[in-house]
Amino acid sequence: MSSNEDLYYLKLNVALEALVDRWYAWSHLLSPVTAGMNIKDRHLKIMESYMRNPQIHAAAIKKPEMLGGPFIDYEGGRVAEIKELYDDTVVKRSKVLDLRKDVRELNSMLLKNAKGYSLNALYEKIPEGLKGFVELYYDLNNRPSFRFFEYLLYKSEYYDESAQTISLQLIQADNDRSFVLSTPRLNDEDLIHLDIPFKETVIDDLFAMKRTPQSLENIEKALAIDPSQSELFRSFFTKEPPAKYVEYTGKGIRTKYFGHACVLIETDEVSILVDPVISYDGYETDVNRYTINDLPEQIDYIMITHNHQDHVLLETLLQLRHCTKNVIVPSCSKGDLQDPSLKLMFKEIGFDSVIELDEMETIELERCTITGLPFLGEHSDLDVRSKLCYHVELHNEFKVMMVADSCVIEPTI
């Protein structure tokens, strides 16, 4: 049993980056089919470009109008390390890259051979790597297509947890990091990379320490910190407790806007957090805002409106998993390439209670009633159904509607 002298808090400005193949993770890098597409057509292409002409990337990064473009931010250096990551990715992710190739072959085969007659004979022409994972069908306009049994793909060799890692670092300023979607995270003296799959509960143990002190020695051992990084790791902790969170005890409703689409809704009975994107605390900033320390100690419901990177932010979600009771997500189209399941993804990365909701479906919960509403727009008019607006009826008679990025294309709704 640890004495009080051995107990430490995790500093409020310790950031977690969830990584896949050292790239910033998001849901489409976890679902096996879309992972292959992103690795081949985004990550490998960006690294190939950098290896060919790193100075073009270095010049582009310096131009504000190019911020967010496909440019690696290593000032034209570290080319050998990028090549090593490239080669390593090609070898270690060969299965999911083959899966991408098989999907393209399947699509071409259907376009060539499906002429309106029965598709039964075409099952033998499905690429070997996809057999047992797809169903063939015609849409109502007689166009051939296919859907995946996505659950089976998660349980196959195509879902590789060894590609998942986390990095830890101290955030000292709002612009501390390179744009996360275009620069892979190489080794750095200020970073700690850990080969830990996202579902591991040791992540919960670590981030619970932002409020509850624990033994520094025990968490260091649980994370298997390399002795050479022990000093850096220990600098992430403090004896100073964070400010105590003031629970809402009023009879009405309290809302906090955290930025982007993230809103906290509280009554004296329930807390609901929408599309979590939470800033860090513990350093000087010119932006007055709510941060990680402005969240309650328990979040009853996290609601996700749609499956975009800036609304399903794994960096925040994994840090909040230990204090989250339930996650509510929109249902998807059940197997379409462009619309992977959020429920399956959350389950695979360690969220135990995931509630899937359909349009106009109502769920009666212990302290509120939530109804999914149609969400029009976004997604470039692709058939993407994993998107919902939410109507929340709180049991103190307040009502809230969250519509995020939905567009009022059809006001009649």
What can you tell me about this protein's structure?
- The strands form 5 sheets. Strands 10-11-12-13-14-15 form a 6-stranded mixed beta sheet, covered by helices on one side. Strands 3-2-6-7 form a 4-stranded antiparallel beta sheet, covered by helices on one side.
- The termini are far apart.
- The protein has helices at 32-52, 54-61, 79-92, 94-113, 150-154, 202-207, 216-222, 230-234, 314-320, 342-348; strands at 7-10, 14-20, 23-24, 134-138, 144-148, 164-170, 192-194, 214-215, 237-238, 254-259, 262-266, 271-274, 299-303, 324-330, 354-357, 362-364, 368-373, 389-394, 399-402.
- It is of the alpha+beta class and 413 residues long.
- A hairpin with a 4-residue loop joins strand 18 and strand 19.
- The radius of gyration is 23 Å and the shape is globular.
- The model has no long low-confidence stretch (mean pLDDT 95).
- The longest helix has 21 residues, at 32-52.
- It is built from 10 helices and 19 strands.
Number of strands: 19
Biggest sheet architecture: 6 strands, mixed
Order of helices and strands: EEEHHHHEEHEEHEHHEEEEEHEHEEEEE
Number of helices: 10
The helical percent reads 10-25%
Give the oligomeric state: single chain
Count of distinct structural domains: 3
Short summary:
By secondary structure, the protein is an alpha+beta fold. It has ten helices and 19 strands. The protein has three domains: 169 residues, no CATH class; 61 residues, no CATH class; 149 residues, Metallo-beta-lactamase, Chain A (4-Layer Sandwich).
